[in-house]
Amino acid sequence: MTTQQQIIDALGIDRNFDAQREVERRIDFIIRQLKESGTRALVLGISGGVDSTTTGRLCQLAAERIREQGGDATFYAMRLPYGEQHDEDDAQAAINYIRADEQLDVNVKPSADGMLASLEQAGLAFNDEYQRDFVQGNIKARARMIAQYAVAGRHNGLVVGTDHGAEAVMGFFTKHGDGACDITPLAGLAKRQVRAMLSVLDGPEALVNKVPTADLETLSPGRTDEEALGVTYDQIDDFLEGREIDREAAERIIRTYDRTAHKRELPRAP
Ligand SMILES: Nc1ncnc2c1ncn2[C@@H]1O[C@H](COP(=O)(O)OP(=O)(O)OC[C@H]2O[C@@H]([n+]3cccc(C(=O)O)c3)[C@H](O)[C@@H]2O)[C@@H](O)[C@H]1O
Ligand SMILES: Nc1ncnc2c1ncn2[C@@H]1O[C@H](COP(=O)(O)OP(=O)(O)OP(=O)(O)O)[C@@H](O)[C@H]1O
Ligand SMILES: [Mg+2]
Question: Best of 52, 84, 178, 183 to mutate for ligand 2, by most ligand atoms within 8 A of CB?
């Protein structure tokens, strides 16, 4: 078996993708997880990007269906900006589209800045402002994780993640930040498959086609994922769908997959 095929299998990429069927299958998955765990709430940060818009709508539909069956479930959508978000319009478009049962707006800037200030006070120094900004980016992602787990803890809920095949293969998430969650409804999907699902769900056109950004670095707001990754999502998606891609791009994907293996595993133990 080729390395490409091994990765496709390890990430659970489905060759026979059908957007409508996957929407239904993944709503059922969320409903089953709530029932089996005995929890009554779903918690998810809504950024204005395509992943959280899609996942948010799946969560809302799952909560509504449970209530229609006489059960108890509430979806808590969280806005978690770091100060003012440059694409706040998109975040609001996502919120208006998802129509979550409940919404909480929490600015993560005071806690993220507070943590960095305390670390620097304790003597942590950085090589330059870019390294400092990168480390601070991961602190922002983890501050969002803390906020979501606080709400889940209060409401007996599950924290929902947005990781999918195209991010997982590149390890492109903050370990124990946005990578920390209880369920990942988008697991095993290529990025274009996530877009296709949002389209089937009648999501706003602008969000279906939105350029992906982690938006973690203050010194380069809205920096595109593709710029950071060094490959395009089309290349990643083609790779995951078993197509032949540019050799250099394939090598980069495989190298990155190997380097980030630890992010897809449980902590090592003796
Ligand atoms: N071999 C190994 N075995 C076990 N653990 C290992 C390890 N190497 C590093 N580690 C641990 O992992 C840490 C590094 O991982 P991590 O803290 O995640 O940091 P890192 O992977 O360096 O940075 C996160 C990356 O994900 C991107 N990101 C984050 C959040 C969201 C999105 C998005 O798409 O929206 C993207 C972000 O832009 C950045 O490029 C190390 O500090 C160390 O603690
Ligand atoms: N400003 C934010 N407010 C609320 N949640 C956020 C914010 N930034 C990131 N998140 C959470 O972290 C997750 C990971 O971010 P990521 O950028 O991968 O997803 P996205 O923004 O939904 O889609 P895309 O990858 O296309 O930008 C988001 O799906 C969301 O749940
Ligand atoms: Mg984003």
Answer: 52
CATH classification (class only), 3-262? alpha beta
**Looking at the predicted complex, does its ipTM rise above 0.90?**
yes
pLDDT digits (tens, 9 = 90+) for 154-169: 999 999 999 999 999 9
Helix (H, G, I), strand (E, B) or coil at 224: strand
* Residue 50 annotated in ligand binding: yes
Domain spans in the chain, listed from the N-terminal domain onward: 3-262
Beta carbons within 8 Å of 224's beta carbon, 6+ residues apart: 211, 212, 213
Report the distance separating Cα 102 and Cα 80, nearest Å.
14
CA angle 86, 90, 93 (to 5 degrees): 145
Nearest protein CA to atom 1 of ligand 1, as residue: 262
